[in-house]
Amino acid sequence: MRRALRWLMAVCVVVATSTAAYAADPRAIDLRPLVQALGSGGYSGTEKALTQLSEAGDPAAVPVIEALQAGDLYVRKADSTVVVARKAGDAFTLTDPLTRAALGDAPAAAVEKIRINNSLRRAISASLGALTLMSPDAGVRRSAADAVFKSRDASALETLNAAIAKEQDKGVRAAMEQARAAILLTGEAASKMTDAEIQSATDTLTARGDRDALVLLNMVAGSGASDVTKRSAAAAVSTLEQKLAFWAALQNLWYGLSLGSVLLLAAIGLAVTFGVMGVINMAHGEMVMIGAYTTFLVQEFFRAHAPGLFDLSILVALPAAFLVSGGVGIVIERSVIRWLYGRPLETLLATWGLSLALQQAVRSIFGPTNREVGAPSWMSGAFELGGLTITYGRLWIVVFAFAVFAALLVALKRTWFGLSIRAVTQNRPMANAMGIRTARVDALTFGLGSGIAGLAGVALSQIDNVSPNLGQGYILDSFMVVVFGGVGNLWGTLVGALTLGTMNKFLEPYAGAVLGKILVLIFIILFIQRRPRGLFALKGRAVEA
């Protein structure tokens, strides 16, 4: 008797708890028939039930719609109940779409998938956007507002108005107002709007200032809307096109600065070696490649032994790449280059052969395929600055390139080694007569230039494929930068890199990447005919002779 009473009390507690839960959230009861309706009536019945779920405005419907979007919503054939089913081996694991309670397993034949078409996919995206407008997460609300802006679903207008009234975040509120303006201008409500409301909506879209807003305003201007709406949209299109053209020019300028910084890193070491020793080093690109592969090896070590410190791998790779590439450069100078001074064509052939040998050696060790080099978290992602999109990776490369340039400039101007390099550059016989060991200066200078090329490889590994052919894509550009700026002049290299990078990026939209590079090469040829020593020629008795 006592055992029976205990069972009865337990059942009462469970029933009371369930009743209290449903009473606390009465909408959960209302959603049940709408969820059931998703599985009946074919595509049209599913779309009708989906619209009703969206209009209910209950966030509890979001997991149900997400399951429908993911293809996980099924109908259990035994009782026509809509369930979430996920494959587990040869069977399906069933859960309740609203409460997420486990409903056991069922064979594949016992359930039937609720299928969706393209029309339903668009409706699902619009419904999710409308329902997540009330999310406590500002990021989710912003994404929902963007989804409604793209779908322009009129059924979301009421929810959108309610969300705007409650929104405290200025950025999210602006996104919601832009979505509302898009719905009003493209829907049936446009015919009922006053001139002031139309102007306000077009102003809101103009303030958004992106390509999506321009496409939408163009569509409104060419639609069958009222004359007032079309005139307002056309004026907004003109304003927005001017604004976008301005930001596009700035974006190209940023791209030019970014490409110029990469060229600066690749060419600055060549400017040192070419300027001091007059060596046409065709293996300079392979020094860049060695720096990139050093970065790969450092990252592999961190992945294997200290994955939690992976973000520091790039900082460790910088000195490692400098030392490895610099060491290889010194070996090349001592074993090959030292015997070929004063014979530039022979140094060209010798270093070209070395470049092929180094490429094949790397190909034999690491294979011909690209190697993965990851980016640390602080170099990932992007941010908006007005109408500019700036990636953190490119931004850090620009900062790094200027930092390397400044450090090299200080080293050449303020240290004994830099003074020796400048002395040898300007007058080698006199420097030798003054007791400067020019052979040692040559070796260390070649090592310095190769080490800087290794640093360029670390940077390029973050934006380009790490492969045996990595350096070949930059050797020609590096020589163009050095010759254009003035052989051996660092300031000339800086100006040359930024100028050629910007010219390339401004020509690409009109002439294409290949033709743009050809036009830049023609410009340099014509320029060198007028100024054979480049923009900033070095001065000195030996140089001028």
TrEMBL record:
Record GO biological process: amino acid transport
Membrane topology: Multi-pass membrane protein
Magnesium among keywords: no
Pfam families: BPD_transp_2
GO cellular component: plasma membrane
UniProt entry tagged with the keyword Isomerase: no
CDD domains, alphabetized: TM_PBP1_LivH_like (cd06582)
Family: Belongs to the binding-protein-dependent transport system permease family. LivHM subfamily.
Entry's localization field: Cell membrane
UniProt GO MF annotations: transmembrane transporter activity
Species name: Azospirillum palustre
Annotated protein name in UniProt: Urea ABC transporter permease subunit UrtB
Cleaved signal peptide residues: 1-23
The organism's taxonomic lineage, starting at the top: Bacteria, Pseudomonadati, Pseudomonadota, Alphaproteobacteria, Rhodospirillales
InterPro entries: ABC_transp_permease, ABC_UrtB_bac, BCAA_transport_permease
Main location class: membrane
TM regions (residue ranges): 253-280, 312-332, 344-362, 395-412, 443-463, 475-498, 510-528
Keywords from the named record: Amino-acid transport, Cell membrane, Membrane, Signal, Transmembrane, Transmembrane helix, Transport
